[in-house]
TrEMBL record:
Protein name listed in UniProt: histidine kinase
EC number of this enzyme: 2.7.13.3
Record's keyword annotation contains Nucleotide-binding: no
Keywords: Kinase, Transferase, Two-component regulatory system
Organism: Streptomyces koelreuteriae
UniProt key word Signal: no
Length: 481
């Protein structure tokens, strides 16, 4: 949008803080190659359009906006003379995409000194060559440092996740190895006990009955009820007394196994009625090995299932076998991230999931959203640990008009009011030296806002900090991050 052209007064622009050190000749060149324009209330330029002009406000009021999702979010409003916007990086030339990084509107008749972007670039390089070199070094050096440290931070996070995953995998793997070794021993003893029984003078009917009891015992193991510690203790006492009364050796050791398998006194009465009295100790011993093998096989099954779930979670988290952009279920992404971080979260922090499972899948870059969840959860855990190590992390999803809300709420120390406006700045961190690069939230912001056209915001007070990520339900197109 173009405004009404007006005369340019070198003295007027020379009074602005941006130009106050320029010589009369330089001010004259600015007025000769630039212009003064007056804009009525409305838009001046739009975010994403080619950056053709550099604007310096002479009088009036300007408002700057950023596009977030489907909304224009106000980021700045000022009436200060001399504020500037527009093609501020024109001196970098083709090395940077020259587009407006925000939208500018005026709320009252406003005058600007307007300099074409090409002219601004030429003047900067001619008048301030050293400053241009310094600014170029600062700009590209900062970008390079940010990429390098960002990659380092991702590698550190990956190392932490790998250590946690290894720890989580080690437990079920070690349990499966132990159970397998014990199972081999029990099967050997079962064969030995079966040989002793077979050597006895028992009728085929008795043997068939005993095998039937064994089958039904194995079935009961699969359906064993979950007992409270008190209920289990009481039942163990009853079964131990039953075994002792019938002269069964090691009744105190057998009773807990039978209780775990869901066997009770009535069941043992059925076993005693089905076999001769002299055969009962061998029958009980054989059934004990049967129960133990079933329980050990259940343990192996549980352990291998746990390993399978962890591997699936790792694949879900890394998205290695999936397309970069897809329709994703945020709950699957959240669950995989929480599982991958479970070792870091620890047992002292209670994780509460308040999911709205009716929410639809959303078009997204799942691997990058997992990085956002990782950063936010990691910060929440650090905040809770700083508050004493015990607390609650609540992860909530909910609809929010045409967007999907993912909220991370922690009971940690909170974010000081003075820091809330800076937490998304690159390299800003409240963590001790060596514990944070200050890029986690900056990376999260760029992934959510720039790549997904969403928004991320924070509300905080001691004991209640909430990071809210809002993601659009409709398709997004990738933008440079």
């Amino acid at each position: 949008m173009s405004g009404q052209s007006m005369p340019c007064n070198p003295q007027e622009i020379g009074a602005l803080f941006l130009f106050e050190k320029l010589t009369p000749e330089q001010l004259g060149r600015l007025c000769g190659e630039g212009r003064v324009e007056r804009f009525e209330p409305g838009p001046v330029y739009t975010e994403g359009d080619p950056a053709t002009c550099f604007y310096v406000m002479l009088e009036g009021t300007v408002v700057l906006y950023r596009r977030v999702g489907g909304d224009d979010v106000e980021v700045s409003r000022t009436s200060q003379r001399g504020v500037y916007a527009g093609s501020m990086q024109a001196y970098l030339g083709d090395r940077v995409r020259q587009v407006y990084n925000n939208s500018m509107r005026v709320t009252e008749p406003t005058r600007f000194f307007v300099l074409p972007a090409d002219t601004f670039a030429d003047i900067m390089q001619e008048w301030f060559p050293m400053a241009v070199h310094l600014l170029e070094g600062l700009f590209f050096g900062s970008k390079s440092t940010q990429r390098a440290i960002g990659q380092r931070e991702r590698l550190l996070a990956l190392g932490s996740l790998s250590a946690g995953l290894t720890h989580e995998l080690n437990n079920p793997a070690a349990a499966a190895v132990r159970a397998t070794a014990t199972l081999r021993e029990r099967v050997g003893k079962m064969r030995h006990k079966l040989a002793i029984i077979a050597q006895g003078s028992y009728s085929p009917e008795v043997m068939a009955n005993l095998i039937d009891i064994q089958e039904r015992t194995a079935e009961r193991v699969a359906k064993a009820p979950v007992l409270s510690p008190l209920e289990a203790s009481d039942r163990e006492d009853v079964l131990s007394d039953w075994l002792d009364d019938r002269g069964i050796p090691d009744g105190w050791r057998i009773a807990p196994t039978f209780v775990q398998a869901g066997l009770d006194e009535d069941w043992l009465d059925q076993v005693a009625a089905a076999v001769d009295e002299d055969m009962l100790p061998s029958a009980i011993g054989w059934l004990n090995y049967t129960v133990e093998t079933e329980l050990l096989m259940d343990e192996i099954n549980d352990s291998t299932t746990r390993i399978s779930h962890l591997v699936d979670a790792a694949k879900q988290y890394s998205q290695l076998d999936r397309a970069p952009f897809q329709n994703a279920d945020v709950h699957e992404l959240l669950d995989s991230t929480l599982l991958m971080l479970s070792a870091k979260i620890g047992k002292e922090i209670k994780v509460v999931k308040e999911y709205d499972r009716t929410l639809p899948r959303i078009p997204a870059y799942p691997a990058e959203l997992n990085q956002v969840w990782t950063n936010l959860i990691d910060n929440a855990v650090s905040a809770i640990n700083s508050a004493g190590g015990e607390g609650t992390l609540t992860v909530r999803t909910a609809p929010d008009h045409d967007r999907l809300l993912v909220e991370f709420r922690d009971s940690g120390v909170g974010i000081p009011a003075a820091d809330r406006g800076r937490i998304f700045d690159p390299f800003f961190t409240t963590k001790p030296v060596g514990e944070g690069t200050g890029l986690g939230l900056d990376i999260s912001w760029r992934i959510v806002v720039n790549k997904h056209h969403g928004s991320i915001q924070v509300e905080s007070e001691p004991g209640d900090t909430r990071f809210q990520v809002l993601l659009p339900l409709t398709s997004v197109e990738e933008e440079p991050s």
